[in-house]
Amino acid sequence: MSPSAIDTSQNGHAKHVDSGSSIFEIEDTDLSRLLDKPRPINIDRNRSFDERSFSEMSISLSPPRHFYRNSENSSRTFDHIDSLYSTSIHGFSSPRSNGFEPHPIVFEGWEALRRSVVQYRRQPVGTIAALDHSAEELNYDQVFVRDFVPSALAFLMNGEPEIVKNFILKTVHLQSREKKVDQFKLGEGVMPASFKVLHDPIRNSETLSADYGESAIGRVAPVDSGFWWIILLRAYTKSTGDTSLADMPECQRGMRLILSLCLSEGFDTFPTLLCADGCCMIDRRMGVYGYPIEIQALFFMALRCALQLLKHDDEGKEFADRIVKRLHALSYHMRSYFWLDIKQLNDIYRYKTEEYSHTAVNKFNVMPDSLPDWVFDFMPSRGGYFIGNVSPARMDFRWFCLGNCVAILSSLATPEQASAIMDLIEERWGELIGEMPLKICYPTMESHEWRIVTGCDPKNTSWSYHNGGSWPVLIWLLTAACIKTGRPQIARRAIEVAETRLLKDHWPEYYDGKLGRYIGKQARKFQTWSIAGYLLAKMMLEDPSHLGMISLEEDKQMKPHMKRSASWMC
Ligand code: GLC
Question: Which residue ranges run through the membrane (predicted)?
Answer without folding.
Answer: none
